[in-house]
Amino acid sequence: METKSLNKGLNKAAKAKKDEFYTQLVDIEKELKYYKDQFRGKVVYCNCDDPFESNFFKYFAGNFNALGLKQLIATSYKTSPIANTQLGLFGGDRLFESKGRPKITANKFIINEVDDLDGDGAFDLRDIAEQLKANKNNEWSPLEGEGDFRSAESIGLLKQADIVVTNPPFSLFREYVAQLMEYKKNFLILGNQNAITYKEIFKLIKENLLWLGYDNGGTKWFQVPDDYDIETGSRIKIEDGVKYFSMGSVMWFTNLDTEKRHQELTLYKKYTREEYPKYDEYDAININKYMDIPMDYGGIMGVPITFIDKYNPGQFTIIGIDRYTEDNPNYGKRFTIGGKEIYARILIKNKKIK
In sequence order, which ranges of 115-257 are alpha helices (DSSP H)? Predict the structure, then answer.
């Protein structure tokens, strides 16, 4: 029993480490610039990151007044290998020693006010640290548990929030989004493109309860623990002593309204039977690139999952996704053309064509 328990613990720790990606500030700024007006007077919650290592926390703390935030809440996760490495901002471990807690612990930070206390003309983390040490209108305290987003105390903080912004564990993406939906929260979070094909996530997309943000696809570099390793060495780089790991096809998932999702996709091609073959098992034409969607076809079309980045619910109707379409006789399997299986396809119809 002890060996089994130990192995389970090691597996859990290994999985947690693989989920330990810290988003770079430049990527956060590129996306958040589109939503600034939507944060005014709101309580923002950044969980799943250590507050003083998280660039999400740094962004919202540094822009607290400019965004007009009502409150900023952040929590850390106890087992994070990166967490608490900037505690020098607190002047040593005094805060922890006064609480009788070990240095490596899960913490919560509640920011109600940001003032330039050090007189350098800027609102930054050092100002936050000074206010936390002085306990001036802001709060720091250890969490009782590990800071897991599913814990009772983390859910208690979630209930106080208006908008959640973070990079959640990719391996728990379904569960994380399900919690946000359960508590009816607005959110802007990062996830892998493949999450679009998850049955639970796709259902939300189809029902227009979730969509994609702006800065999607391409390659993003995330800070990872020093002992993080992967076989593909080219996806690892070290700059100024900090290790980064690259990931492609990373998307922003949100339910905050955007101008982008109301922009119509320009269509310029015309339908021909030769260019758009039908699937073996379903009455729909295949389209290999969303830009090749014909302007004059009113039937059902199968498009790549990248289409979701261009999806306008006023222009198209989503019917389903290949293997999860209920009237698909091969339910649970991908479509084929001439017996050859193709990549995942989303089934759509053009609302503009009767």
Answer: 125-134, 152-160, 173-182, 199-206
